[in-house]
């Protein structure tokens, strides 16, 4: 079995995987990061969304070996020092979740959206989330949470480099 190494949530990890092992399986089964959910096994629901090298990816469609050397961030990597990320806090404040199953994938997708578009419109948020399915909320509060997170992030002072 080939060995792989990557950085997950800021920590170097490695393991041996079969060639057919999916990234979602490696994260959940080998690393114990169960916040990345498996919802459909067909890449349609988005519950398995993680960030690979900063971009959102459905981890059920990516072979773990393909992520060799990559920077991977899962929902577990969003909270820093016990404090929720801006997107997570917005989901809580605006009731952007009900059962919570889709929430990790939604949070990771919105995090990526706000990376590429700091001021999305409601229509742009809805378009971006086409690859994420929520069976509970009707999306209204998820969209409100995304727009609130965008506003919060724009209001934060820019860190000096």
UniProtKB/TrEMBL annotation:
The keyword Iron-sulfur applies. Transmembrane segments: none annotated. It holds the Pfam family Fer2. It comes from Albimonas pacifica. PROSITE patterns: 2FE2S_FER_2. One of its GO terms (molecular function) is oxidoreductase activity. This is Carbon-monoxide dehydrogenase small subunit. PANTHER family: OXIDOREDUCTASE WITH IRON-SULFUR SUBUNIT. Residues 2-78 form the 2Fe-2S ferredoxin-type domain. Keywords: 2Fe-2S, Iron, Iron-sulfur, Metal-binding, Oxidoreductase. The keyword Metal-binding applies.
């Amino acid at each position: 079995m080939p060995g792989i190494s990557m950085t997950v949530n800021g920590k170097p990890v490695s393991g041996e995987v079969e060639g057919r092992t999916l990234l979602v399986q490696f994260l959940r089964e080998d690393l114990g990061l169960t916040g990345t959910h498996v919802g459909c096994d067909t890449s349609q629901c988005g519950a398995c969304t993680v960030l690979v090298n900063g971009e959102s990816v459905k981890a059920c469609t990516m072979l773990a070996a393909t992520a060799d050397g990559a920077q991977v961030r899962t929902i577990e990597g969003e909270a820093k020092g016990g404090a929720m990320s801006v997107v997570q806090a917005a989901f809580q404040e605006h009731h952007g979740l009900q059962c919570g199953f889709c929430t990790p994938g939604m949070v990771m997708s919105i995090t990526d959206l706000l990376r590429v578009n700091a001021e999305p419109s409601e229509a742009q948020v809805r378009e971006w989330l086409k690859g994420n399915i929520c069976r509970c909320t009707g999306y209204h509060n998820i969209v409100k949470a995304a727009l609130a997170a965008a506003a919060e992030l724009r209001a934060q002072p820019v860190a000096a480099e």
